[in-house]
Amino acid sequence: MLIVLGCPSRKTMRMRTMVACNAAKKAMGRKILIMGTPEQTKFMIGLLDSTPVRRRVILEPNARTTAEMALLSAPHVMTAASSRKQDEVVIVTSSNHASRAKILFDERLGLSCGTETVERSGVSYSRVEEREKKKIDRILVLQAIFRR
Predict the structure, then answer these.
(1) What is the pLDDT of residue 85?
(2) From the CB of residue 145, how many other CB atoms can be counted at a distance below 10 Å?
(3) CB-hemisphere CA count at 13 Å for 93?
(4) What is the CATH number of the domain that holds 36?
(5) Nearest 5 degrees, angle CA 34-CA 133-CA 60?
(6) N or C: which end of the chain has fewer CB atoms below 10 A?
(7) Which domain holds residue 28?
(8) How many domains does the chain have?
């Protein structure tokens, strides 16, 4: 299953959706789970309307954050796993977001998820990397606390 994460940037969502579409074309039967807000999922599904992978798309329009996406993806992944031999779960996101997304999805799904990343142009990477590192540190601290 390919899990495409929504974000505020339409340009980035377009790139993520196209990466997932191309990967799904190469792997017959692979499902695509599009996640985000109602507006984000509507935009991304619209990009796939005239593609052959459209019939394999599942929408989850109730997630605003990466943590919510990880939480809400579990039932969809388990349903796909029970309906046929489950292939790898791959998260499609931006390169600067991949580490944090992988930590959250691995924890929630109990799997080692793969990642497919896209680059974001026009972004100040030093500030983004600093913000992502702080968020990852918070996640790791919370995981350590709740595992005790």
Answers:
(1) 56
(2) 8
(3) 25
(4) 3.40.50.620
(5) 15
(6) C
(7) 2-147
(8) 1
